[in-house]
Amino acid sequence: MATADEIIARSSPSRLIDHNLIDKEVESLCDGMVRYEKRPARRRDGSVAEGLYNAWIVLNNPRQYNSYTTDMVKAAILAFRRASADREVNAVVFTGAGDKAFCTGGNTKEYAEYYAGKPQEYRQYMRLFNDMVSSILGCDKPVICRVNGMRIGGGQEIGMACDFTVAQDLANFGQAGPKHGSAAIGGATDFLPVMIGCEQAMVSGTLCEPFSAHKAARLGIVSGLAPALKVQGRFVANPTVVTDRMLDEYGRVILGEFKTGDAFKEGQALIRGGEIDLGPLDRMVEELCAKLLETFPECMTKSLEELRKPKLEAWNRNKEDARAWLALNMMNEARAGFRAFNEGTRETGREIDFVKLRQGLARGIAWSEALIESLMPGAGK
After folding, report:
1. I need a surface site. Which of 39, 223, 288, 367 has the fewest CB within 10 A?
2. What average pLDDT does the segment 238-252 reach?
3. SS percent in the chain: helix, strand, coil, step 5
């Protein structure tokens, strides 16, 4: 009886139809700020599975913490479609360049300098953003979010659209909405209640306080956690985070919470004096890809479709209303919030004076350019 290798070798390649929308490389659409790479797939024993690959989609804007521009969003949509249609692709790895950030969301410079005050333009942008999220949720291959650094704001939203999250343990997670003039309705308000429960979703979506990768793992939005900090040649856990199961004065488990005061500063100093090595993260990603490789492909796709339904149903129910509201919000709070972040500095801060805004609105002051200018960081000083 012929072996599987012999049967494959004797078969003539079929003429296959190309199901991609365009025949251009995605890098050409955004000056290389999204990279599409096919890396050889490996079995669990480490050997290469000839002719099979894992597709890596890499947000390549590290100077701006891998925030996505409009052109990057277009390229990401096409990249996920390409990976989904590629018969040779086993799994998709979605990540960012460098070791500082997976993604911090939309590019605030573009938001502040182009979209602010232009609701119709931003509505068109949000069509593209919605299509990017949908392209992740609709990918026929399992999608792994490789969190190489911060996953904040819209970065958290596209990350939660993925099927798996594997993170280096120095990474931070969270939302930025009400702190910067928006609401986390690009997916977070759909996904968070499903993934971590209503109470913790409320905390993340309203208070916008970043939380550690260790807390993300405890909450259930990270399935694999890898060390990244090397000190004197040895890997150590994130020293700014409580990694032992401890109780606070109210008896609550605080595993994964950030340390406070001098302990936090000492941890930061240790990070600055150490070396970041993402080797363990990459090995964890490869191990997960290898496990996915050794499954029936059609059964895998059907399993993905079924397991995604809670996220997908919430997303499809709300995405168009969210798009309309976000567009209109560009006339006032988003216009102020994105400008403040873009124009502020470390010295002045990057947030408006929230108390002044609330005081003015309580007295019936209308939104105007003068009001926005008065709220900018450092205004009147």
Report:
1. 39
2. 86
3. 45, 20, 35
